[in-house]
Specification:
Layout (H helix, E strand, L loop, with lengths): L2 H13 L12 H22 L1 H4 L4 H14 L10 H11 L11 H16 L6 E2 L3 H4 L6 E2 L3 E6 L20 E7 L5 E5 L2 H12 L5 H11 L5 H17 L3 E4 L3
Antiparallel strand pairs: 1-6, 2-6, 3-4, 4-5
Helix pairs in contact: 2-4, 5-6, 9-10
Length: 251
């Protein structure tokens, strides 16, 4: 048997020891060390990244979920820090739910992952704090690299073992998750108009305030141009104050 074939059999057994035989000639006591080491590392990273989601499972069901991820998903990144993102991708794309899964599994998991992602993402050195009083109406606007504009069908910030929704909300819930000046992760509840403003800035980096208001007017004709201008200004002042909206060094 070639070395590559041995490697393949080794990893297949590590990932799925109940279905895949270990390579011949390797003592099971030694294989057990590798089985436990690999699985426990993966389980540890996922458990620490999704502490709220974990509370909805028995230990057996939680380990079964992680084992399925370990067996079925081929991670595209070699870094342990990216395991949480790979787990989210697995849940959202190829995972088939079981009766043990809460109905809100994907949205709650995504929200927990966003908190982790924001906590470790790199700050863009070109980002500059806006002075809302003097600069908001005359500077190019950008959505900060350390903020996320989100919407969910479940009120994810309220979910706990004692508060488990059984069906999605009629209307979406809107959030901004961001890193503050002390590098602490914060979140705020927003509304559809704020989510629209931020999504337009995300989609067109460098947008100016007048251009932004024009785009909102096209999408919300039920409001007058002056209503939109005043509402957008107040919202962006608050977002600039938290450095969710910034400008950039153009040099």
């Amino acid at each position: 048997m070639s070395f590559q074939a041995i490697q393949h059999d080794f990893m297949a057994h590590i990932r799925d020891p109940d279905s895949q035989s270990a390579p011949q000639g390797i003592e099971d006591r030694r294989m057990a060390i590798y089985r436990d080491l690999f699985f426990n590392n993966i389980a540890g990273f996922i458990s620490s990244g999704f502490p709220v989601l974990k509370t909805f499972y028995s230990q057996h069901d939680w380990h079964a979920l992680i084992r399925r991820f370990f067996i079925e998903h081929d991670c595209q990144s070699p870094y342990f820090l990216d395991i949480a993102g790979e787990f989210i991708h697995y849940l959202a794309t190829t995972y088939t739910k079981t009766p043990a899964d809460p109905i809100f599994i994907i949205e709650l998991a995504h929200y927990e992952w966003v908190e982790l992602d924001v906590s470790v993402c790199h700050h863009n050195e070109d980002e500059i704090i806006i002075n809302p009083t003097d600069e908001l109406a005359s500077t190019a606007l950008y959505f900060s690299d350390t903020a996320r504009n989100l919407s969910y069908q479940f009120a994810v910030q309220q979910i706990s073992v004692d508060h488990q929704p059984t069906e999605p909300s009629v209307q979406p819930h809107y959030y901004v998750v961001y890193r503050d000046s002390s590098d602490e992760v914060q979140f705020m509840l927003t509304n559809p108009m704020t989510a629209l403003l931020l999504s337009l800035i995300e989609a067109s980096p460098g947008l100016f305030f007048a251009q932004l208001c024009e785009q909102v007017t096209q999408r919300a004709p039920q409001f007058s141009a002056e209503q939109i201008r005043q509402g957008a200004y107040q919202t962006l002042v608050a977002m600039a104050d938290k450095a969710v909206i910034v400008t950039k060094n153009q040099g």
